[in-house]
Amino acid sequence: MIEICEYNPAWPREFEGILTEVKDILDELALRIDHIGSTSVPGLGAKDIIDIQVTVRELVPEIVARMIAAGFQHREDITGDHLPCGEDPDPRLWEKYYFMQPPGRRLIHVHVRKQGSPNQRYPLLFRDYLRAHPHSAATVERIKRALTRYHADDVDAYYDIKDPVYDLIWDAAQEWAENTNWQPE
Hints:
By secondary structure, this protein is α+β, with helices and mostly antiparallel strands. The chain has one domain: Beta Polymerase, domain 2. Helix content is 45%, strand content 15%. The protein has a five-stranded mixed sheet with strand order 1-2-5-4-3, with helices on both faces. A hairpin with a 7-residue loop joins strand 4 and strand 5 (108-114). The radius of gyration is 16 Å and the shape is globular.
């Protein structure tokens, strides 16, 4: 069941703990580690899952080996991201490794993406755009709450609707980034 919770001001602190742990696991392989997703946007209601993005030079097997050795669950069935309308469809641009928390821990999603790929830029720009545009963030929350009213038990339907809505915001975010000379924090 998908549930959207009220914003929790503890989410950024929880991310900091996860950041330290993942940094210790991946060490020199991680170029940067960012809090992404709805829990990274102050005031935005979200699923109670801390999403983090690890940016790496290359997606190499050692990343998977280290994360599994640390107890994280590698989702081999998730190897890429949603392709926003109008973006380059080359699947190599949308590749990632995806991990979930070790058993018994708080819900965590770890997305490992290659530096400079569009799927590495997407969550950073999306996060920063919503932080700078609280009305858009509030609209995202309204959409997600409506989706859970109708599709809380159907993950496929939830994302089949949510992803194209996010594509609309993606277009606006890219224009904003160009107009403001945006760079990720």
